[in-house]
Amino acid sequence: MNNWPRSIAAPHVVNIEDLRERARKRLPRAVFDYLDGGAETETSLRENKRAFESLIFRPRNAMAVPECDLRVKVLGAELTFPAILAPIGYSRLIHPDGECAAARGAGKAGTAYILSTISGHKLEDVRAGTNGPVWYQLYLLGGRPAAEAALQRAWKAGFSALFVTIDTGTAGMRERDIRNGTGQLMSGNYFGMIPFLSQFFSRPAWVASYLIDGGIHKLPNVIVPGQGPLALVDVAKALNESVVTWKDFHWLREAWPGPIVAKGVMTGEDARRAIDVGAAGVVVSNHGGRQLDGVSATLRVLPEIVKAANGQIEVLMDGGVRRGGDIIKAICMGARAVLIGRAYAYGMAAAGEPGVNRAIAILRADLERTMKLLGCSSISELNQSYVQLPRDWPDARAD
Question: How many Cβ atoms are within 10 Å of 158's Cβ, its own excluded?
């Protein structure tokens, strides 16, 4: 039995929402809302979670399920748990250990971690901290020369797959961040933070750890030729100048020896384009509701992408996963596995690496319990017969 720190142990914390509340109490509003918020009216952010609530289980009762096989194979890696830790930009702002803590937590749980280009820690340090699979997520910050240098470092360090985010042609309109002064904080503009200082006075533990860690660091994995590491303040501008197109995948196939996954696919058409450019997989993702607001919940469009993929590439999904039952519903609808982001980041914000471990443990226990209650003993046996679709959802079963 795990001896969790009291602050994140039962009965204080029994689900991901409890970790979210712990995160809210520890982080300044500018940081918590950077993690928690979405774009514009946050419609897509809400719909990601509502979609899971709309899907109803159809259990097989009077079944003895003494144990469950939760294993799944993704991109050639054997995972003990069908939830992968998603890339979160500059996790070091959430907790000083940031990406290193997340990678260690994933490795201990027997699953994979995806490191964001916008990382506060060197990719070599992140890789060295875990014996689990580690994959790299790419933005074309600093242009192709900077990206190629990062890819060479990542491959040499032992990153085995590349996730290319395709839904950031420009930064989404995240209104909470504007109201809270998140941009001023991340740019290191402390004079500009003066109107927002009250939120930091109420979070002295976070402020102390932030200052001890040295404040905002430059991005150690984005080395711009002739300039050095990219400053975090330049990221929004750099994203606007580094749009990824399908043509870039041809170059990436030459620059990266391993499998490439397109992250941000929301239509069958884009799934087929991913196949055409040689991608090994796609992530059905609306960026956690942080980019284009008003798009569909990812769970709802998942069957369309699965049908378009037609078994030619692997299909993963993220967005709104907060319980083990959500993971099962995504797999029933055709996902090979899910990516979790906010769920583990709330744990990180609450208690660092132990919080990451606690979040994963909660989801794993949820998953196994729900499997037994469904009367299903293996992830590989899950299919759409275990759920009932809402009447207004398209039925995308194979013809």
Answer: 13
389 in a domain, yes or no? no
Residue 391 belongs to some domain of the structure: no
pLDDT digits (tens, 9 = 90+) for 12-38: 999 999 999 999 999 999 999 999 999
**Domain enclosing residue 219, as ranges:** 6-384
Per-residue pLDDT tens for 296-321? 999 999 999 999 999 999 999 999 99
Predicted pLDDT of residue 398:
45
Q: Which residues of the chain have pLDDT under 70?
A: 1, 234-238, 395-399
Taken in order 56, 60, 61, 66, the sign of the CA dihedral is negative
Distance CA 188, CA 190 (A): 6
Q: Is 361 exposed, middle or buried (0-12, 13-18, 19+ CB in 10 A)?
A: middle
DSSP letter for 155, please. Answer: H
Q: Which residues are catalytic, by number?
A: 287
For residue 169, what pLDDT is reported? 80
Cα–chain center distance at 137: 10
Phi, psi for residue 366 in degrees, rounded to 5:
-55, -45
Q: Which residues touch 201 (CB under 8 Å, ≥6 apart)?
A: none
Using CA atoms, how far apart are residues 127 and 134, in angstroms rounded to an integer?
Answer: 7
Domain annotation covers residue 390: no
Q: Is residue 288 part of a domain?
A: yes
Question: In angstroms, rounded to a whole number, what is the distance separating the alpha carbons of residues 392 and 137?
Answer: 34
Residue whose structure tokens are 């013809």: 399
* Residue of 261, 344, 322 lying closest to 53 (CA atoms): 322
Instruction: Quickly list H helices, the chain.
Output: 16-26, 29-36, 43-54, 98-109, 123-128, 143-157, 175-180, 182-187, 198-201, 204-212, 235-240, 248-255, 268-276, 298-309, 324-332, 342-351, 353-374
Contact partners, residue 118, CB within 8 Å, separation at least 6: 89, 90, 139, 141, 219, 222, 232, 235
CATH number, domain containing residue 359: 3.20.20.70
Domain count for the chain: 1
The answer to whether the beta carbons of residues 330 and 339 sit under 8 Å apart is no
